[in-house]
Amino acid sequence: MPSRKFADGEVVMGRWPGSVLYYEVQVTSYDDVAHLYTVKYKDGTELALKESDIRSQSSFKPRKSQSSSSSPSRRSSSRSRSRSRSPGRPAKGRRRSASQSREQKEDKKRAIQEASVVLPVLVGDKLSENNTKRYNGEPESTEKNDTSRIIVEQKLKPDLEVKRVLEQYSLRSRKDEKKKEEIYSEKKVFATVKTIEKVPSKTKELEFGGRIGTFLLLFLLPATVFYLLLMCKQDDPSLMNFPPLPALESLWETRVFGIFLLWFLLQVLFSLLPIGKVVEGLPLASGKKLQYRINGFYAFIFSAAAVGILLYFQFELHYLYDHFMQFAVSAVVFSLALSIYLYIRSLKAPEEELAPGGNSGYFIYDFFTGHELNPRIGSFDLKYFCELRPGLIGWVVINLAMLLAEMKIHNLSSPSLSMMLVNGFQLLYVVDALWNEEAVLTTMDITHDGFGFMLAFGDLVWVPFLYSLQAFYLVGHPTVISWPVAAAITVLNCIGYYIFRSANSQKNNFRRNPADPKLANLQFISTATGKGLLVTGWWGFVRHPNYLGDIIMALAWSLPCGFNHILPYFYVIYFICLLVHREARDEHHCKQKYGLAWERYCQRVPYRIFPYIY
């Protein structure tokens, strides 16, 4: 294995990709596999360079000026060659004064101006020329024009001859060629930078505690879901009152797994229907743009119609409540099987299709975070489908089942006010996500994270079975609230939703079309990547205003459950921890990506999520 030449932290000169220019950079790391140095420029830009593109600072020594020594010799040799060619020419003829040179330039300039006037007349429409002369009462003689044409041709003959030769042999003048090379060089710089971004590199910074942490999460996440669901079934769901473990055979039922599988396939069918517009996602590292069909809201309508048909034929939807644990186990088993399939197929995926955060080379870590970025079966995108369809729409169906179960168990003619608030708030959230489905294409889940156990479990288990925790809790622990309290909670939810939706809309619209006239009032900081960082609107208030809206809404969803137990507020606590983790990850990612521009942005917007607090 060849030894590295430059050490970490060493200041060297790095060649800017696609050019011959060297800039001062600092070596940050070295990839032993790809043999690439990661260097950091003064503006914060980080690139991967080969060793041949890096030189030590000592090799850049100032050159001595040779003009004083070389000019006389060149002049003398020029004069000697001039004398040898024409020894009988007088001295005056051997030199050209500056005034004569200016006169010749002026003559050529006047000739070109005359050509611009005369030549269009000679080449233009003859009928128009004759009609003009008739209108002015002039004869149609061309004697004057012929004389002017001869004068212009004589003056421009050398230039025209050169141009004719260049065109004949497909040549270009050195000046034009130089301009073209400069333009090409600029394009090559940006193309090379993009090429460097395309080169897949191993994931160096591991999240979630690395290999050990992800291994433990494979067991901790399902255990957390089962623990919380068992707690909700207890009469006293306090955290210190650990629930008894059920018999293993009671956790599995083939019929329940069949219903779950049928629901998943039904959503696949709805997503494949040729309705809704087809849009392009953001450019991938390879420059390619994937296409997505936006029909999630239609799938929600069709799902609601299917559930309505089941209720019309007297299907007891509270069956979901009675077998809730079995459904959760079925979802865990399915997500695990899907994750295994995703990892196996990712082993054959091209390098450019691997996820930047799931290419560590460690089996457990890549299995958990997702090895392949956008796994597809034909045009069917597995990650995009699971992100919004079976789990998110299933969340609404589960909430409805809990509402019906509450009415049946407590013999109510109508659902409680608390249950109605929880169902209404969360229904608004789901409908908003499906109505603005296109916005999910700009999220890190789609653009950065691979599709592995983390997202598969989160989409199919965590979202439908833990986000419905408040409704599940209210079935066994009914809470009575007054209308004024309900109105206050509704206002709080509306505030959170307004912040969440308006902040996301600003971000998504700006990402897709920064030149949109509707965004003309927004100010931003330009970055070296060509993108901008918003510093006005919600994004000038805090760095992650969409997270602030999420947390406010999560609190509004939990308040209808009262304050007897902390269990319904698990979602709020989890959401705060999740968003703080995401915020820290976003901060690190943006600092690497935008460099000094991100530091300026952080100075301009000091608060991360909570204004004046954090």
Automatic annotation (TrEMBL):
Protein name according to UniProt: Delta(14)-sterol reductase LBR
Cross-referenced Gene3D superfamilies: 1.20.120.1630, 2.30.30.140
GO molecular function: Delta14-sterol reductase activity; DNA binding
CDD domains reported in the protein's UniProt record: Tudor_LBR
Family recorded in the similarity comment: Belongs to the ERG4/ERG24 family.
Pathway, per record: Steroid biosynthesis; cholesterol biosynthesis
InterPro entries per the UniProt record, alphabetical: ERG24_DHCR-like, Lamin-B_rcpt_of_tudor, Sterol_reductase_CS, Tudor
Chief site of localization: cytoplasm
SMART domains cross-referenced by the UniProt entry: TUDOR
Bias-annotated ranges (Basic residues): 76-97
Keywords: Cholesterol biosynthesis, Cholesterol metabolism, Cytoplasm, DNA-binding, Endoplasmic reticulum, Lipid biosynthesis, Lipid metabolism, Membrane, Nucleus, Oxidoreductase, Phosphoprotein, Receptor, Steroid biosynthesis, Steroid metabolism, Sterol biosynthesis, Sterol metabolism, Transmembrane, Transmembrane helix
Biased composition (Low complexity): 55-75
GO BP: cholesterol biosynthetic process
Reactions mediated catalytically: 4,4-dimethyl-5alpha-cholesta-8,24-dien-3beta-ol + NADP(+) = 4,4-dimethyl-5alpha-cholesta-8,14,24-trien-3beta-ol + NADPH + H(+); 4,4-dimethyl-8,14-cholestadien-3beta-ol + NADPH + H(+) = 4,4-dimethyl-5alpha-cholest-8-en-3beta-ol + NADP(+); 5alpha-cholest-8,14-dien-3beta-ol + NADPH + H(+) = 5alpha-cholest-8-en-3beta-ol + NADP(+)
GO cellular component: endoplasmic reticulum membrane; nuclear inner membrane
Biased composition (Basic and acidic residues): 102-111
Topology within the bilayer: Multi-pass membrane protein
Region of interest: Disordered: 53-111
Residue ranges annotated for the Tudor domain, each copy included: 4-62
Pfam families: ERG4_ERG24, LBR_tudor
Coiled coil: none
Organism, as annotated: Pitta sordida
Transmembrane segments: 208-230, 256-275, 296-315, 327-344, 455-475, 481-500, 521-542, 562-581
EC number: 1.3.1.70
